[in-house]
Structures are given as C-alpha cells and as structure tokens.
Amino acid sequence: MDVQAWWAERLPRVERELDAVLPAAAEPPQTLHAAMRHLVFPGGKRLRPAFAMAAAEAVGAPARAALPAAVGVELVHAYSLIHDDLPCMDDDDERRGRPTVHVAFGEAVAVLAGDALQALAFQTVAAARPAESAARVVHALAAAAGSRALVGGQVDDLAFDPENRDTAHIESVHARKSGALIAVSVSGGARLAGADDALCERLHAFGLDVGVAFQIQDDVLDEGEDDACSLVRAIGREGAAARAEELLSRALARLEDLGSGAEPLRELARYAVRREK
Amino acid sequence: MDVQAWWAERLPRVERELDAVLPAAAEPPQTLHAAMRHLVFPGGKRLRPAFAMAAAEAVGAPARAALPAAVGVELVHAYSLIHDDLPCMDDDDERRGRPTVHVAFGEAVAVLAGDALQALAFQTVAAARPAESAARVVHALAAAAGSRALVGGQVDDLAFDPENRDTAHIESVHARKSGALIAVSVSGGARLAGADDALCERLHAFGLDVGVAFQIQDDVLDEGEDDACSLVRAIGREGAAARAEELLSRALARLEDLGSGAEPLRELARYAVRREK
Predict the structure, then answer these.
(1) So what's the pLDDT on residue A225?
(2) A222 φ, ψ to 5°?
(3) Do B146 and A29 touch (CB under 8 A)?
(4) N or C: which terminus of chain B has fewer CB atoms within 10 Å of its end residue's CB?
C-alpha cells in the first residue's frame, strides 16, 4: 500500500485540529501564543499523529477517533523540543531551518511556551469521549511525559558519557526519550478508538519497539557523530542497523493477527525504521 | 472554628500522598528525582490542598475524596515555582530559606524537574475515580495551568510596566497567576467529592475571588516594593486592602446556602486574605 497517499488524506485533519486547539497568535499574550505556534507550524514529519490515526484504523475505527491522542502527543513532542533546544540543554539555534523558540522569542518565553504546550496537550486529551478512555489516555500520556520516561531519558541523555558502550542503557534512553511517546500515540489512538486493555497493551509494546528502532535509525543516518548516546557509536553502523531491523520484526509480529486495516500501521513502522533521511 | 486544628488533622494525609506519588530520590535518574522533591518537601503553606479538601467537606464528602485534586494542584504550583525562579525569569537564589532548584541542581535539571512535576500532576488527577470526574478535573487543571491562565499570567507579570496603574490589568494578572489554581483547587476538590456542575462553577468563582484577594494581600504584606505588578503600587496600601476585603465578601456570599460543613472553607478564605505573614 501507499502509506504516503494514505497519510496525505488524513494529515489535513490533524493540521486543522492543531490550529483549532492552539490560541491564535493575535490573542494576548501575543508573544506567548506566537511562540507556542512557532514550533508547531510548520511541523516536522507528524509521525506521532500518523501512528495514532493508523492505530485507530488498525482496530477497526475511523482515523478521526484518535484525533485527541494524535494532537495531545504532538503537543508534548513540540514542548519537549522547545525545552531540549534551550541554552541550558542542547543550546541549539536552529531547528528545521528556522530559529529555535528561545532565539526568536527569548529564553523566558521559550520555557513558558513549552510549559503551556504541555498543559494544552492534557487539556486536549481530557476533552475526548468517552471520559473513561480520556482519563486512561491522559494517564498514559502523563506517564510517557514524566520522570520515568521522556524527562528521565533527557536527563540521562544530557549526562551520557560518550565512552559508555552499554547497549542496554543506550536503548533505555531511546525507549524513554523516543519510544514512550510513540508507544502512547499507538495505544492512545487505539484506546480512543475503543480497543480493549489487552490490545492496547500489545499496541503499546509495538510502539515502544518501533520508537527505539526509529531512534537507532536516527543515529544511523547521523552516522552517530552528533549524539554521545548512540548505538552506532557503541557497536558500529552495521550492528545498529541490524538491531533496528530486529526490533522492527518483533514489533510487526505483534500485529500478525490484525487484518488489512493494520496495513497503514505496519507501513508507518517500516517507514520510520527504514527511512533514508 | 479553629481552622488550624482542622488542617493539622488533614495535612499528614496530603504529605503522605505527595510522598507516595513522587518517585524516591534514590530512584534513577537520582538528580532529577531529588530535584523534584527539593521544592515539594518541606512545602509552604499547602494552601491549595487545604482548599481542595475543605471544598470536599463543604459539599458533604470526606476530605480525602479531594486528595487527587489536592496533590495535582500542589504539584502544578511546585513546578511553576521552580520555573519562576530560573535565571531567565525571576532569577531567585533562595526560596523558603533554601537554595532554589537551579542553584542546587543546575539549570537543565531545574527545567526538567518542573516539566516532570507538571506531567505527574496530570497523571495523579487522571487516576482519580470516577473517570468522568477525573477527566473534568484534568481539563480544568490544564486550563488553569495553560497560556490563558497561569503561564499567560506569568508572561504578563514578567513584561509588566511598573508605571502601569491599570487596576483591571493588575487583577487580571493576579487572577491568572494565582486565582486560577486556587479556583481549580476548590472546584476540583468539590468535583471529585461528587458536586454537580452548578455548584462546581459557583465554587470555582469563589476560589478565583479568594485567589486574587490572596495575591493582593501578598502585595500588602510586601508593601508592594518587590513586585512591579501590585495593586499597592497602583492605588496604595489602604485601597488594596479594602479591595481584598471586598473580594473576600463577594466570595463568602457565594457560600451562603452551604451549611456548617463549609465552615473550614470559609475560614481558609478569611485566613488567606487576612493573614499577617
């Protein structure tokens, strides 16, 4: 199947929803709202929303059922990029060819824009129906964004010793910093689409494997030169690429009993892990 | 009634719950978890948890019904203090007689500890039951923490022109920066205790007035010298104190039909607005 065409049909719905939940840049405080939008539009690959919507279809619902999860995860991702770019963290001046938020709006507004995007993520998910599913997805998203996942992974990434070749620790950083949010995209999208607990857990495990493999591929494409915490640096390019393929296979095996409705989800996983840029 | 004695009986439950939801300082990443705890223990007045638990009793439920709201709001409050203290914001080295989080743990960890505390707040509230109420309180807490309330208030406070004497704008900053979280303490506590929509809205309005009056009293006690955005600076100490009393009266009038179970809530409001330190 042509996953690019599949996504091109569904992406506009996500863009409209992101635009609808974000306050207008003209609404005061204008500098804050402009800063919040600066990182969200134009977006990157929108990989997390795509996973959420593909998961809804994989469990037999229309993609739009996953919209609150798709938008919530993307907003958490956006906030984390703003904070990661800060001078006290990675100190990046540019992202996607544009000035980072702290360069364009100042450091205080960048911290606060990230803070407000995180709150908005939970507000968006909490408005989903039924409320039972909304509360479950808020809980899962908060866990994925918290000290035991996203934030803890960033702390360990910042403190990573480049001489460390402990592949389990490297994969643990990837699982927390990248895997957890992709996992909750998939399981949260499925949850809002009505999937039961067992299926949500299975899809969560799928997303976690794909997320780690995605991050390994990131390192493979960078040839591991930029990041200290990189499987390429630890075991070489070939070994890292093989490990990513292994994780992809394990992930896909978890979807074996799902029918053709899961094909976009499978194709997205293949794209995420095998992409060339 | 003796509200101090009332609170002394209930406070340990809040302390235990905060301790239970926060990862141990010994859990890796230890620096992150120690930093998260640094601001939470020892706490300040725990005014927001007290309001949440008093609201539960005001609507006829045991105080413990409000625990997830009490803890969730306190964690948002804690995260906001860590970020407000950062060098790029208020640049404070000390809080409550101890080094601020960025002084003790570094700036990156301070940003991340705040981020993780915000996520933990929503995770805690999302675990409340019934799920319908949990989702409503997550939504209200996220709105109170977002760009239209807490974060927007902080942006306007940082940008406040000390020559500005616009009392409506000053009160709008107070309402967003202080009032919104106190309002959601009260309405969220009542919501988890089973109060209906109309009563929750009324209690929210009560909390908003009390929160603004609390912040005005803060300025009165500081004699308005520290903060640019201060009603004392705009209209003088006497006028500001009178305005705080006016807001307190308006707030208390909203509770007139509630019985003696609302007495702790009334007394907390009087304490918050009339305290001498």
Answers:
(1) 60
(2) -75, -5
(3) no
(4) C
For B67, the token pair is 């625990």
Question: Which tens digits make up the pLDDT trace of B94-117?
Answer: 999 999 999 999 999 999 999 999
> What is the tally of structural domains in chain A?
1
Q: Is B89 exposed, middle or buried (0-12, 13-18, 19+ CB in 10 A)?
A: middle
* pLDDT tens digits for range B128-148: 999 999 999 999 999 999 999
Q: Tell me B99's DSSP state.
A: E
Residue A44 burial (CB < 10 Å; 0-12/13-18/19+)?
A: middle
Q: What local confidence, expressed as pLDDT, does residue A180 receive?
A: 98
Average pLDDT, chain A: 96
Those residues whose C-beta lies under 8 Å from the C-beta of residue B80, and which sit 6 or more positions away, are A115, B114, B145, B150, B154
Distance between CA atoms of residues B77 and B68, nearest Å: 14
Write the pLDDT tens digit of every residue in A100-124.
999 999 999 999 999 999 999 999 9
> Which of A57, A192, A195, A70 minimizes the C-alpha distance to A137?
A192
B1 touches chain A (CB under 8 A): no
d(CA B133, CA B138): 9
pLDDT tens digit sequence for B198-248: 999 999 999 999 999 999 999 999 855 667 899 999 999 999 999 999 999
Cβ-defined contact of B115 to A115 (cutoff 8 Å): yes
Chain A CB contacts of B107 under 8 Å are 88
pLDDT at A175 over 80: yes
Q: Among partner residues A28, A131, A141, which is closest to B135 by beta-carbon distance?
A: A131
**CATH number of A234's domain:** 1.10.600.10
Give start and end residues of each alpha helix (H) in chain B.
3-21, 30-40, 47-58, 67-84, 101-105, 107-126, 131-145, 150-158, 167-174, 180-192, 197-222, 231-253, 263-274
| Residue A277 confidence (pLDDT) | 81
- For chain B, the first-to-last Cα distance in angstroms comes to 21
Q: Are A35 and A113 in contact (CB under 8 A)?
A: yes
Q: DSSP state, B23?
A: P
| pLDDT, mean of residues B70-76 | 98
**Per-residue pLDDT for A52 more than 90?**
yes
Distance between CA atoms of B274 and A128, rounded to whole angstroms? 41
Among residues B47, B46, B52, the alpha carbon closest in space to that of B200 is found at B52
Which value does ipTM take for this structure?
0.98
* Rounded Cα–Cα distance for residues B207 and A248 (Å): 51
Domain of A14, in residue numbers? 3-274
In whole angstroms, give the CA distance from residue B275 to residue B277: 6
Alpha carbons within 13 A on the beta-carbon side of B173: 23
Closest in B31, B138, B151 to A138, CB measured: B138
The alpha-carbon radius of gyration of chain B (Å, integer) is: 18
Q: Which of residues 123-182 of A touch B (CB under 8 A)?
A: 123, 125-128, 131-132, 134-136, 138-139, 141-143, 145-148, 150-152, 154-156, 158-159
Mind telling me how many Å the CA of A81 is from chain B's nearest CA? 12
Q: Is the predicted pLDDT of residue A224 greater than 80, yes or no?
A: no
